[in-house]
Amino acid sequence: MKSKPLPLFLPPLESVSKGGTTVRISSSHSDGAYCVCEMTTMPGEGVSLHVHDRDEEFYYIIEGAYEMEAGDKRFTAVAGSMVVIPRDVPHQFRNAGNVPARALMIFRPGGFDELLGEVREASAAGTLDDKQRQAILTKWGVHFDADSRLS
User: Fold this and answer.
1) Whose CB among 9, 41, 136, 137 lies 3.0–4.6 Å from 95's, allowing a Cys bridge?
2) Does 3.80.30.20 match the CATH number of domain 20-111?
3) pTM value?
């Protein structure tokens, strides 16, 4: 029997990273229903074309602007924009501005936070190579082309 989710309050981040993703609500807080991450992307940086075969993604742009492509749609998402990307839809994004951009990302079901954790653990241990990175991505249903990188 699943436990009843408890209310959760998260204050603002004390500092915003200069690039990367911070897990704000883990999958364990929602019994695996979702997870929430906050992403900061430096100018010109982003994530290349990829697909999630298990996750729906919701982006709320907090600051800056992201050039995004999802399926056959291309658009610029500025602060205050909301973007929904269903599972199995190829997508990519990059910071289109000259300042760091920030977005709140919700993944349904949860698990993306666990993917990030596995990548970070292997990287910290010095064991993360392309083969292991690909195995982690595949385990969590994320598929990039051969030249893509997840940081």
Assistant:
1) 41
2) no
3) 0.85
